[in-house]
Each structure stands twice: as C-alpha cells, then as structure tokens.
Amino acid sequence: MDKWLWAARFFKTRAMAAKACDLGRIKSHGTEAKPARDVKAGDMLQIKTEGGDYEVEVLGLSEMRGPAAVAHTLYRETDASKDAREKAAAERKAMQEFMPLPERRPSKRDRRRIIQFRGGR
C-alpha cells in the first residue's frame, strides 16, 4: 500500500505514506489499510492528504516512482471526490477575502510581543 501511494505521487516519501496508513488516513473498501497491504486493480481507496481528500479507483500497479503523467494513469478519481475538493478550494479562497491584511509589517516591538505571546523567550 505504501509503495503504491508513493508511486502514485500522493506522498513524497514511502515513510510519509506508511505513517498516513498507521494514522488511519488511508482506507481500502471502507476499512483502515496497513502499509503492507496488497493493492489490486479495482480497489477503491479513500486517501486523506494535506492537498485534500481523494476517493480513487486503482487502475494499475507500479513498483517504482515515475513522472506525474505516468503516476496519474495508476488511478481514476471519482467525480464526487473532484467536486468536493474543488468546493473546498473555492471556500478557502473565499475565506481569504474576508481576512484583513495587516496595514504594515510588524515593528521590532510588535515582533517581540508576537514571539512572547506564542510562548517563546
């Protein structure tokens, strides 16, 4: 499982893919998947990453990591998953419009107060 997730470019390293499996962020047919689980063509996977939540069907297998164009041929994302990710991205973009930008850079005094507030020094 971890090797396929790495080869399909959902994670940068196999260690990150294995950790995601251990944390329960990868599900195969609705059950949590272990890093050593075998992946077969036709499996439905639910993958939670920093980039969003994916629901994919496995189309092919690969033992090595290749270019992104080749990695994309290993799976097919469901339409519902694509719509949900696009909706979440639009919501994040809309929230940025409501957050006021600071009028200026923090001064040295402001910066020290920020560090102190965050628990530093």
UniProtKB/TrEMBL annotation:
Basic residues bias spans: 106-121
Limits of the RNA-binding S4 domain: 2-44
A GO molecular-function descriptor: ribosomal large subunit binding
Protein's name in the database: RNA-binding S4 domain-containing protein
Organism of this sequence: Occallatibacter riparius
Gene3D superfamilies noted in UniProt: RNA-binding S4 domain (3.10.290.10)
Gene Ontology BP terms: cellular response to heat
Ribonucleoprotein recorded as keyword: no
Protein family per UniProt: Belongs to the HSP15 family.
CDD domains the UniProt entry points to: S4
Residue numbers spanned by region Disordered: 80-121
Listed Basic and acidic residues bias regions: 80-95
Keywords: DNA-binding, RNA-binding
Pfam families recorded: S4 (PF01479)
